[in-house]
Fold:
Amino acid sequence: MSTPYAKLPAWADYGLIPLINLSIAFVVAGFVVMLVGENPFRAAVILVEGAFGKGTGIAFTLFYATTFIFTGLSVAVAAHCSLFNIGTEGQAYIGGLGIALVCLSFDSVLPWWVIFPIAIVAAAAFGALWGLIPAYLQAKRGSHIVITTIMFNFIAASVMVYLLVGALKPAGSQAPQTRNFLAGAELPKLNWVIELFGAKIRSAPLNICFLLALVMAFLVWLLIWRTRLGYEMRTYGHSPKAARYAGISETRIIITAMMISGALAGMMALNPVMGDQHNVAIDFVSGAGYVGIAVALMGRLHPVGIVLAAILFGMLYQGGAELAFEMPAISRDMIVIIQGLVILFAGALEHMFRPYIQTLFASLSPKSVGMQTVKGTGA
Amino acid sequence: MDSFNAIIQVLDSTIRLSVPLLLACLAGLFSERAGIFDIGLEGKMLVGAFAGASAAAVFHSALIGLGMAILISVAFALVHGFASITHRGNQIVSGVAINFIAAGSTIILGQAWFSQGGRTPALQPDERFAAIIWPGADAIRDVPIIGPIYAELISGHSILVYFAFAMVPFTWWVLFRTRFGLRMRAVGENPAAVDTAGISVAWLRYRALICTGILTGVAGAYLSMVQNGGFVKDMTAGKGYIALAALIFAKWKPVNAMFACLLFGFLDAAAIRLQGSPLPIIGKVPVQFMQALPYVLTVILLAGFIGKAIPPRAGGVPYVKER
Structure:
């Protein structure tokens, strides 16, 4: 079977096409804004100003971005192994359970810099375990990872609700959440970094998890492109047959990839739980796992792209909140639509414009698409 | 007699709760049998529910509501087709996208059009599908055993409930007794063979997706126009995913699908009925356990511990013509 698509220069493949797809998504979102009876251009201005106009806005944008970097990386690591992990949501939720157990046990005796590493390990371990079961079932019993991870999201939700209205809820309280953590489980803020640049910040939840997220992005790059394990994962992702032929154990690679993916998802919980809310409440993940899918697709599964895409979505979240103030007809759910459109155009329809761009490139400079060496293939 | 009445009531709500699952499950059956994975059932139901309730409220007609629900739901199904058939995109990604667009747009448009916090106006009785009382239902209501079964379980549901259950044999007939059904199953197993026979793979898959859209539209209309008197935001609440689970549980067969949906509906009804009251022998069962049970059962089934669920072979793979 011949590949239906010819090669494009790298900058077009990784820059131009995602940019076109993203623009289309925003144009369609603009039509929705018009349908609601508001001016899409004014909406865009409010959105960007809300996200980057003031120091507080920037801090909030980066706070949301932190969450999405974790979930985006989680989806991407699994995707490199051709596993579609929709279970990021549930893995993050269960990761929160691990954090809750650590914080509730130690927050009165230990300082944050001791609790933080323990919490990281606990969050990662709980998330990884929640990813392990679907991975095992895929590798050993052949059940489809997408379906099992969806099921595990719902099972995680039930487990967490059960615990949060029962064992984890402090006696005498009505709200379905844990007690508030003490100072020992509160992470230091990073707002001073933004204040260094002269911006004023009232109160924003940006915390050191942002740095952890950047470190993780680097480690994921290292893992995927600079280690044997990453190489094996990518091989399996491209061709399970080739991987089998090369002696790569299918079971091992699926389980490892999903556990790493689950661990990254679980670590996402650190940001809202220890950095902002200081408790574990029902549905604290609130869809960040699904945003991870959009972020990973948008970032083309590369850590740098994921960080940029996460900041974009952080901007949408923060700017969207401002937008809801200014334009009452537009609530924060507008972001959900944009998210869906980004997933549709950057993910499912990612090749829609490729043939046209190829034709364009071929007519402008045939060399750039390799037309001179192999005539008659592809476009 | 009391416990008998309680059983009748639980079974009655089982029927009511399993109808949207059944419609969505059969919808999924059409697309997955044709080789298109569809995790966008949830989203299509949601837009169907929203379109149905809005149109019914604006035009004061239940039928226009139903028509609109089907129309919009089919439109979303066609978007899924455009992405996954025409452009050979990842079907799961496309399904996720549809769920997001549905969740966001129903709230935004609902708020913009009706400004009731994402709800649509409460539907009047004549804008909904009324319950159909079967002949003689009231007359024999007091007859022991048969009376309540006839009057409560069989009679007294809306037309969409009967439609849903009538769709089970109809789907079976379409799938296993018509040329379209044969070709559709073939395209889900081996599209290349269908292509060789000179039949368009894409057009077959599009038609299967239109069937999916119609059924999810009816499922949505049932939620917002029968079960509830209007649209409430996120009212599908995971039913599309339970339907997907039921579809796997049913091993992609229509009659099994009905039993799977009745089972999941029964679990839901029982969870509502029990609400923490203790069961004999087992003791008190947490509500969350009952809610998680459909998912747990599906995972166990998928793991091959209760039989083996083998999906249509070409499922999830976009068809590329040899060139």
Remarks:
- Confidence is low (pLDDT under 50) at residues 373-379 of chain A.
